[in-house]
Write the structure tokens for this entry.
Amino acid sequence: MNTLPQFLQDALAQAHPSWHPALYQGLAAVKAADPEYLSNLSGSHFLPTAGRLFAAFAIPIDAVRHVLVGEGPYPREDSATGFCFMDGAVTDLWSQESGGGLSKKVNRATSLRNFIKMLLVTGGYLTLENTSISAVAEVASKAKAADSVFIKSLPELQENLLAEGFLLLNASLVFRPDVAPIKDAKAWLPFLQSIFFALNKQQNRTAVKPTILVLWGKIAEQLQQMPVVALFQQQIAEHPYNLSFIGNKNMQDFFAPLNLLYKRLA
């Protein structure tokens, strides 16, 4: 694509070079499906800002082992980072108040709260029968200790996910307050298809462990319409905003070996 709008050129600069062929192909596919979409997008206000449209592609394509697909960017500028599920407005995981459990910002982010509780149940720190504030507070008091093995912030959780080869991708790369999210999500489907084709080609070339797609809620229904998705192993569950996610045995078994809540050894 020789005439990319400037905002796309700026965004591509934040992606790892190994992704550039797939990203160009994906954008070409978007334009072929709707010739006006990208030009209209350049004239509108959308999230994420600061050229972070392709921020999720900062890790090399050959480092990807899992693809976690979120719905779309958070509808707040400080929260939308270009990485799915990572709320830029959240820093501390644990409450700094005496007797507190998870931080207020984590508790307000329902999906993140349930995801962390699922990890705590998986690790044996909580029981499924008791994920109350007081139960989490006991874990938090240990997590906040200076010699704790627990991570303390959302950026650390993101780093752990990236280190495990997670591509933190949204089904729709943009959020616009004046456009229905489903409309933007539909426009980005050809882009996602190009990304999955590139990942499938990569995994066939390297003969490493198959890439696993982690699909939650209605996203799974949408993406499974694309035949290329059938070429990957899949982990499918309800969306984490459902309380039942905390007790999802498949999710517990999948995430247990990754130890995402622990500090990484230097």
Remarks:
- The chain has two domains: 6-81+160-231, 92-152+243-266.
- The mean pLDDT is 94.
- Strands lie at 66-70, 166-170, 212-216, 233-237.
- Residues 107 and 113 are 5 Å apart (CA to CA).
